[in-house]
Description:
Blueprint: H1 2-6, H2 19-33, E1 38-41, H3 45-48, H4 51-60, E2 64-70, E3 96-99, H5 111-122, E4 129-135, H6 166-175, E5 181-185, H7 192-202, E6 206-208, E7 228-229, H8 232-235, H9 239-244, E8 249-253, H10 260-269, E9 272-277, E10 291-294, H11 297-315, H12 323-350, H13 357-367, E11 373-376, H14 380-388, E12 396-399, H15 409-420, E13 424-429, H16 430-435, E14 450-456, H17 468-471, H18 474-482, H19 489-495, E15 499-502, H20 506-512, E16 519-524, H21 527-547
Parallel strand pairs: 1-2, 2-4, 3-4, 5-6, 5-8, 6-7, 8-9, 9-10, 11-12, 11-13, 13-14, 14-16, 15-16
Amino acid sequence: MALAIGSCSSIALHIFHDERSASFAALGIAIETQMPAILLCTSGTAAVEFHAAAVEAHHAEVPMLLCTADRPPELQGVGASQTIDQQNLYGVASRLFVDVGIADDLKSANWRALARECLEKACGLSPGPVQINLPFREPLIGDAKVLPIVVDERPIVRTVASMPSELEIQVVINELRNIRGVIMAGAGSPSFDCVARLALALGWPIIADPRSGCRVEGRLDGHDDVVIVGAADSILRCDGFAANNAPDVVLRLGEPPVSKVVNAWLRESAALYIAVSATPRVIDPDRIVTRHVVAPIGKWCEAVADSVKNSLKKSRENSLATPSDQSDSWLASWRQAEESAQSAIAGVLSNSEILSEPSVARLLSQCAQQGSRVVLSSSMPVRDYEWFASPNSGICVYCNRGVSGIDGVVSTAVGVALASGATTYLLIGDVAMLHDANGLIALSRRDVDLRIICVDNNGGGIFSFLPQATSLDPSRFEQLFGTPHDSDLKALAEAHGIASTTADTAAELRIAISLRGPQFVRVATDRLANVLAHDQINDAVATALKNS
């Protein structure tokens, strides 16, 4: 199989020494391209190393083709080396499991049909991993022969959700007859222009997760009247504003936000909650989704925007106040809050040239080049970027939020960079960096512009925000939650031949991340100081909203 793939000039071949790294790189490639990469490994524990990425792909609905080489039947169950039970190895994570049996030319007529089935399952309405188990007998070398002729020349068509009927769309429009509504734009949202058209039609603000592509300067995209809220987490920590601006209707496009504060506000509002997704899966841990719409989200938004103006105009004709007055007041409240919050955040972060974890996230959002990719690690990086990132048009933001693990993050970014060919920034913490240090193997030899910004607080910084930090004895907290490692991450990157530097100030970080990658930039922070920095920002936003 390796020889066959290597001899095929139409396939881009990437070699990874660590199967787990390979699998997360394949995940990154598929996230970028929405098409599966082919993963190939030997038998035994090598195949097991794919499991974490397969689980992430399952929950995040990312297509994958996992080709696991296997030992022949006569070596199963007799203690043969490098032999385990690989039948349906990834369990419920697999969209399809196929054991093709020992390679036999007599079966070759079925190979293309089988390949089509595997690809269609991986790219189906609910995309995900497909395992193809490939047992071989020795000798394990040979020439790839001529493949069977193409019988079915139809291109592989990715299964997508169908559009709801006009009646079904009208039912939802009837539920949107309320001025106090918000659009939650999450990962998987359609283009900003599409969401902006809908927001203008409804007269609602857009609370924009950075992964949605909607956290942009509205006026830069020709939508001066659209209210885009990026500082929702800080704003909604202000009890007065949160209570006075609770929505009656929530329209969520794609995935929910990461922010616990925003999700709690939505839950406590008891609003009519409409979730629109491109697949049948609905993410609803709080069990608050009232209606789930499965549709091509972009086309659905366009259809609703085209219909909603006349429908809402008629339904609001008998309102005590004119619709425009009510809508303007609702939008003005959110616009003022966003402007005040962003000004307060910028004021706090500009007071010190010394970097903090919030300032690193904000500076990255400001410096990321047009057309670039930003990959965020779970834990604090994705939260800091969600909470403090500035609007920036023309960048794609990714994060493995299927199961929100911190493993494989470096390799995911490598995969994104390989598939996109674009400048790719990775914002990652020190523990996640150590989790996937093998993602650095051979990175200096890959033709990728990957710039890694590693926030190093010598442990698990997110736990300093939890009750354990103040309720436990400090030594016990450090042992079980802080978990300092005392590793020299800069030296680790340099050991892999990657240009490395340390940035202590905003000016140094700007220079460091302006250089073409592979580059590694370490930013040292203190976990206790980081908690205080977040508190300072939230206090400043609260004061700004109170005085606005």
